[in-house]
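Page 47, continued from p. 46.
Same chain as before, 275 aa.
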Amino acid sequence: FPVTICPPKVEAWLHKPNVTPIAMSPHGVRQMQEKGIDCLYVPHAIDTSVMRPHYDINGVSTREYLGFDKDDFVVGMVAANKASGLVHRKAFSENLLAFSIFLQTHPDAKLYLHTDPLGAAGGWNLLKLCEAMGIPQESVRFPNLADYRYGMSSEHLAALMTAMDVMLATSYGEGFGVPTMEAQACGTRVIGSNWAATPDLVADDCFLVEGQPMWDVGQDAWWSIPLVPSIVVALKQAADAPREKSQVCIDFAKQFDVETVWERDWIPALDKLLA
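Result:
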């Protein structure tokens, strides 16, 4: 199973003589190197002065703000609810099914889905999906739609990420996955796919799940569907892990701070491009 395969149309564009590609992940670098394409590497960046542990929203405990008890095991997702028809790259069906199975043995688990529940931008109706998965209404929360659609402060989002015991972020494929890095900057461990960009971008105390290859005819390249049993195992491992914030994750995320990326990666890249 070829875990790295550059889509042919992307490869053709990158081979143009007037194109100097900048990869945003080590996975992207490897894909281009396998095709003999010279590239630069500059990862996405986050502001760790803002994305750090925050424990309240407007003076109210974030758990209380969400309607969760302080001892609940909170699983969070931060993923755009935008689909390609019958296929959802963010693997909501697999992730929610895994959570519903996990919930049977961990009734104190709660799910926070930071996304549009109705899929107004071409996504899925996640309320119906939760119902189909047998997830009780009292076990799942969504953001206030006005806040979500019109924007909320970064500190507010950091507090929501801090309130999670683990972020569930398996998908069919990621080019980087900014929310996973933001969550780690807040000390929250991540469950991600052992595929595409993700393995290089999670700390040692995070969790990776295996997948089933899926051919994406739109790109003539591979996706990987995360395996539900593997997600359930990762959720159980996360539940057994310490509940305190992970300093390992916080330290790992610091290498992607915006100032660090600017000085370490962008300035040398621009010097080379503008020489």
